[in-house]
Structure formats: C-alpha cells, structure tokens
Amino acid sequence: MEFTILFLATAIVMLVAWRGSRLLALGLFGAVLIACVATYLHHATDTLKLSF
Amino acid sequence: MTQARAITLNALSLYAVALVLMAAFAAQFILNELPCPLCLLQRILFAALAIGPILNIRFGPRPSHYAMSLLAAVAGAVASTRQVLLHILPGDAGYGSALLGYHYYTWALIGFIAAIILIATVMLFDRQFEDDGAVLPPTGGPLAQIAVWLVIALTAANVVTTLLECGFGACADNPVVYEMLK
After folding, report:
1. Across the interface, do A29 and B167 touch by the CB < 8 Å criterion?
2. Which UniProt keyword terms apply here (chain B) (predicted)?
C-alpha cells in the first residue's frame, strides 16, 4: 500500500510542478523523498551476506 | 548553453525517464514479472527524477531544480546498490530475468549513476541560469508538453498497477500474483 501512495504522491508533485506553485512543488518533493527514505529503511532489514 | 537549449535537454531527459518506466512495464506485462518492493521503490525514484526537469521547463532552469533530481538519483542509486548487494554472492540467481546479462536493478544502478553524471555535467553550463532575453515558447513547446504529460501518465498508471499488485496491505517480498485480481 505504501508504494501505491508514494506513486500517487509523486504524480501529484508532478502535477503541482506543472500547473501549481513552485514552492509547493519543492516542499512536496521534499516530503516524498523523506517518505521514500523511510520506506527504504523500513524494508532494508535483511542482513547483507558480505565478507571483506 | 542557452536557456532554450537547456529546456530542450530537460524535455529529452523526461523522454528518457518515460522510456525507463515503459521498459519496467514491458518486463511486468510481457514477461509477467511482478516488481518486488525494492524494485517499486526504484521505479518511484526514477519517476521522482522527472520533477526537476518539469520545474525547469515551467519556470526556467535553476540549480535547485537540478539538485532535486540529483537527490532522487542518489536515493535511487542507494536502493539499487542494496538490491545488487543482496544478490551478489556466487550461486545467487538474482531477482527476475536478466536483460543483456544484467538484472533490472543493476541497470537501474547504472541509470541512476548516469543520471548523476549527466545532471552534474549539465549544471556546469552557467549561461542557462541567466536571463538571456530570448522569447521561450510557453511551457516549453509541444515537445516538452508531450514529455511532461507522458511521464505523468506513466506515473499515474503505476498507481493503478501497484494497487492491483499489492492491494491495501503490504506488498509481498516475492510477488507472483496481483492481490486485487485473486
């Protein structure tokens, strides 16, 4: 569900960037990027099997 | 580089993002390979790459618009690097099929790194940030307008396909069926 919301939010930011205010688009973009990072951290739980 | 040339380049970059999103759809529907959660995140970050160029076309090129795309590209590179590392051990077949010897997440990593290099290179041309007095076509002209709407339409299509795939719950780690079509 979170990915559907992120796609929807990205599409909305695109529409705001194209038709709305620049500052609003910048702010919404920041919010989407933070949400993407949070989603990444939520899913990146498997330990990487690496040896150096 | 003049403002007009920079806007044309930004429109072309939107076609590149559209091509990536269409290639992802091709793998999903022709090969019937459903994207995993990390794959979806990489798609979202490819779509987020397009927001900077859209702002550049509408408001004129600005360093802050390029910076937005750079941030999205770095986040995308981190996500795709993690997926590469998850499947890096010998004997690991990787996730999904390979295209020209590389899996899609490896291509995504190459794409995000290429985006970082290209954006940084374009930002070297300072003249695009000065008002050169040229009369620019409203909202970038037809080439740019088609590019913007194409990227928006593809992102909106991803809203629908992701909802069909994941439903209203959490997406499966290795999805094989569309949750909403079961």
Report:
1. no
2. Membrane, Transmembrane, Transmembrane helix
List phi, psi (to 5°) of A29: -60, -45
Indicate the average pLDDT of chain A.
91
pTM of the model: 0.91
Which residues does B110 contact at the CB level (< 8 Å), separation at least 6? B102
| CATH number of the domain encompassing residue B122 | 1.20.1550
Q: pLDDT by residue (tens digit) across B90-128?
A: 878 778 787 888 889 999 999 999 999 999 999 999 988
Chain A: give the shortest CA distance to residue B156, in Å.
6
Q: Which of B45, B54, B159 sits opposite A36 (nearest CB)?
A: B45
Domain residue spans of chain A: 2-40
Structural domain including B105 reads 3-181
Listing DSSP states for B121-156 in one string gives HHHT-GGGGS-----PPGGGHHHHHHHHHHHHHHHH
What is the rounded CA–CA span in Å between residue B67 and residue B126? 14
The alpha-carbon radius of gyration of chain A (Å, integer) is 15
Q: How crowded is the C-beta side of A35, counted as CA atoms within 13 Å?
A: 18
